[in-house]
Amino acid sequence: MRKEKKPLLYIQQPRMIDVGSNMQNTYKGSAKKAENRPKPLVEVKEEPVEAVIEEQREVLTTESYFRPLKPFREMDLEGKIGYLEASIMGRAPFPCTFQTEHVSYRGVLRSSDSTTLTIKTFQGEDVVLEKRAVKNIQIIGLK
User: Fold this and answer.
1) Is position 6 within any domain?
2) pLDDT > 60? residue 57
3) Residue 92: inside a domain, yes or no?
4) Which one of 21, 49, 53, 72 is most buried, by most CB atoms within 10 A?
């Protein structure tokens, strides 16, 4: 397939060695077996009272961390606001529809106080609503 050609001009050129590769080589490493020697026994001082207390604390934290969440539609208004506030930290905000008695605003929750919500609408305006004026919050999808 490949013809070997010698260089046409010999001006202090090093030897041209054609490197051939064999694509079907297999390599096997040497496996040294570890000697099974019995390890000397080491006395371990146990403090069971402190260990039990630490295990109980860990169980409480894992249970609270993995508690199941309700679907967003089934949450009450305070639960929805808390969920959206938690999504502000480090994640992309959810676009929502905030419905009041007369007007509904489409946008993203920026911040919330004990009495007010600050919403950034899709038009770029910041709207401040009172929590008691908001009747419903729905997450909408992006189109």
Assistant:
1) no
2) no
3) yes
4) 72
The reported pTM is 0.50
C-alpha gyration radius of the chain = 35
CA distances from 97 to 36, 37, 75, 103 (A): 68, 70, 15, 10
Domain CATH code at residue 134: 2.30.30.100
Q: Per the structure, how many domains does the chain have? A: 1
**Closest by Cα among 137, 133, 131, 126 to 96:** 137
For residue 130, the enclosing domain spans 72-139
**Distance between CA atoms of 20 and 32, rounded to whole angstroms?**
32
Cα–Cα distance between 58 and 54 in angstroms, integer?
6
Helix-strand-coil split of the chain, %, nearest 5: 25, 20, 55
Task: Report pLDDT digits (tens) over 14-53.
Answer: 677 777 777 777 767 777 666 666 777 777 666 655 544 5
| Structural domain includes residue 52 | no
Query: Using one digit for the tens of pLDDT, what is the confidence trace for 110-130?
Result: 888 889 999 999 999 999 999
Among candidate residues 61, 81, 66, the one with its CA nearest the CA of residue 136? 81
